[in-house]
Amino acid sequence: MTVKYTKDHEWISVNGDIATVGITDYALHQLGDLVFVEVPEAGRTVSQGDETAVVESVKAASEVYTPVSGEVTEGNSGIADDPATVSGDPKGKGWFFKIKFSDSSEFDGLMNDAEYKAYVASLD
Amino acid sequence: MSENTSALEILLTTPLDALHRALGAKMVPFAGYAMPVQYPAGILKEHLHTRAAAGLFDVSHMGQAFLMGDEALKAFETLVPGDYQGLAEGKTRYSVLLNDQGGIMDDLMATRIPGGLYLVVNAACKTQDFAHIEANTRGRANLEILADRALLALQGPKAGAVLARLAPATADMTFMTFRKVDIAGIACFATRSGYTGEDGFEISVPADRAEELAKKLLAEPEVEPIGLGARDSLRLEAGLCLYGHDIDTHTTPIEGDIKWVVNKRRRENKGFPGADIILGQLANGTERLRVGILPDGRAPAREGTEVQDLNGNTIGTVTSGGFGPSVNGPIAMGYVKTAFATEGTPVNLIVRGKALAAKIVKMPFTQKSYKTA
């Protein structure tokens, strides 16, 4: 299963023609305690870079941008009910939405694990 | 990120800067100063700790001054609607500097001390406040800016017990009183006041002893360091205004629902800026009012959120909004047309294009627990 990353600190994991999207540890660390999460409804069509989900800390609201275009097949209602789930397991139970992607070439512009680690290191 | 780094390089620092960094604080620019927005515990835990025990805040960026002289009280009253001639020595009173339209230039704390007043004003306004006070009291009073003093706030239900341990003379102080007192052997001014809705103190300390005092307070088992993030969520739950957001030069104390700052004697004798406008509003009401707004759901409504009536008409704006950790849900305050300001009125908040149900509520959102006797 390939995992790629965006400069906005989303991860995307591909499984067949469906990809799962979440936010990285770095994003979580920047945000602090999450108090509200809004995930997209199934059936919503989004284009690469669209604001697709929302995360809010005590202090501020931030957007989660979809790394690829396609149709949302599921939003994670578990994190909407309990935002703390994201902080506990951002790469597992804390996923945000699943998307049936429409253009696999969009993955080419995303970072692999090593590239993302180097990118994060350059920010600190 | 690089912009932030270079901006931090030219920021002013408080006497506790090295301590904040040693404690692992995340520093951000605020009112021209590098300030701790949070420590490693995070805003949520810091907020809840303050409500449960005691939190120590660095508020040294705020402006402190003495306004001294025989005419100091009279001269100061020409700038504010508060009764300071009628205030007993050792008592503190909240007030607002007004412009000629009755708009609020800043809010402040002023304490009667022998020979004059001790003032504490907001960091972002302090340069213009002091220039304004100096210019308008010249010849009648002498403004002495206390740039060599730091200011710490110790807040929370355990604050009284903690400070009494280090300074027994503070034990019998009540809300909004002031005392010069040695704390752990350091000459301080303590005011029993704060910005969290909790009991507590604001402690003025010589800058060169500030870190020593902060470390002594942090060594007490009940005390944790608290950043500006939790300071904001604490004051919002307490229903207290943040200057520049909930009140500013375009709002009067009557619109801002702090009409109690216009003290009785001043209503009768006037003599403060914008008196006719403010007294007119007191008699006839205003077109809008500051209110508490409680969203029904879980989504916070941030500053700038449009408030609509149930028919989709714009009736106001959120001026402070976020998540209240002690309320365990979203809370907000803002201005609405007076017809909609009654407690219980249903309204809609427009968040990311969607109308979210909310209602007008009385503030504070959490019970205040001041030591009044």
Features:
heterodimer, A: 124 residues, alpha+beta, OB fold (Dihydrolipoamide Acetyltransferase, E2P), 6-stranded antiparallel β-sheet, 3-stranded antiparallel β-sheet, 23% helix, 36% strand, globular, B: 373 residues, Gyrase A, domain 2, Elongation Factor Tu (Ef-tu), domain 3, 6-stranded mixed β-sheet, 6-stranded antiparallel β-barrel, 19 strands, disordered N terminus
What does this structure look like?
With 124 residues, chain A is of the alpha+beta class. Chain A is 23% helix and 36% strand. In chain A, strands 1-2-3-9-8-5 form a six-stranded antiparallel sheet. In chain A, strands 4-6-7 form a three-stranded antiparallel sheet. Among the domains of chain B are: 2-59 and 148-237, Probable tRNA modification gtpase trme, domain 1 (Gyrase A, domain 2, 2-Layer Sandwich); 287-361, Elongation Factor Tu (Ef-tu), domain 3, CATH 2.40.30. In chain B, the strands form four sheets. Chain B has a six-stranded mixed sheet with strand order 10-11-12-9-3-13. Chain B has a six-stranded antiparallel beta barrel with strand order 14-17-16-15-18-19. Chain B has a five-stranded antiparallel sheet with strand order 5-6-7-4-8. In chain B, helix 3 crosses helix 8. Chain B is globular. Mean pLDDT of chain B is 96; it is low at 1-5. The chains are: A alpha+beta (124), B alpha+beta (373). The A-B interface holds A 32-33, 35-36, 38, 54, 56-61, 123 and B 1, 37-38, 42-45, 47, 229-230, 232-233, 298-300, 302, 322-323, 325, 330, 352.
